[in-house]
Amino acid sequence: MEKSNTEKVKAAMAASAGQKGADIGAVDSGEDDQGVADLPFSRGKTFTSLDEYLAHLKEGGAVDLPWWREIQPGVYEYVTNKTDAERKTATREELMERFGFAR
């Protein structure tokens, strides 16, 4: 029997995180509770840095979730599978402010 899309997404995210069978929607119970929570496509995780969050988004890109790709030092492009989407770019500082990370 073929897996549903949701099951495929969960399996891909768990495999990329090295957590076979893990519930990828679970809240990260790490010791540092000072991170930023409730970010788009965060799946309940809290992130302590912009780099950590961008890496998480890039992993989700493997299953067609949007993410930010660095196109030159300090400049990022929004990557999505929508063919008619307007091109979006942002500086590192703009992303830090948008997502609530301290400088």
Description:
With 103 residues, this protein is an alpha+beta fold. It has a domain at 49-103. Helix content is 31%, strand content 14%. It has three helices and three strands, in the order H-H-E-E-E-H. Strands 1-2-3 form a three-stranded antiparallel sheet. A hairpin with a 2-residue loop joins strand 1 (67-72) and strand 2. The radius of gyration is 15 Å and the shape is globular.
The largest sheet is:
3 strands, antiparallel
Low-confidence stretches: 8-32
What's the number of extended β-strand segments?
Answer: 3
Total of DSSP H or I helical runs spanning 4+ residues: 3
Helix and strand pattern: HHEEEH
Structural class: alpha+beta
- Kindly, what is the distance between the CA atoms of the first and last residues, rounded to a whole number of angstroms? 48 Å
| Structural shape | globular
Structural Rg: 15 Å
Proportion of strand residues:
5-15%
**Sheet with most strands: strand arrangement:** 1-2-3
Helix content: 25-40%
Mean pLDDT: 78
Quick rundown:
By secondary structure, the protein is of the alpha+beta class. It has a domain at 49-103.
Task: List descriptors.
103 residues, alpha+beta, 3 helices
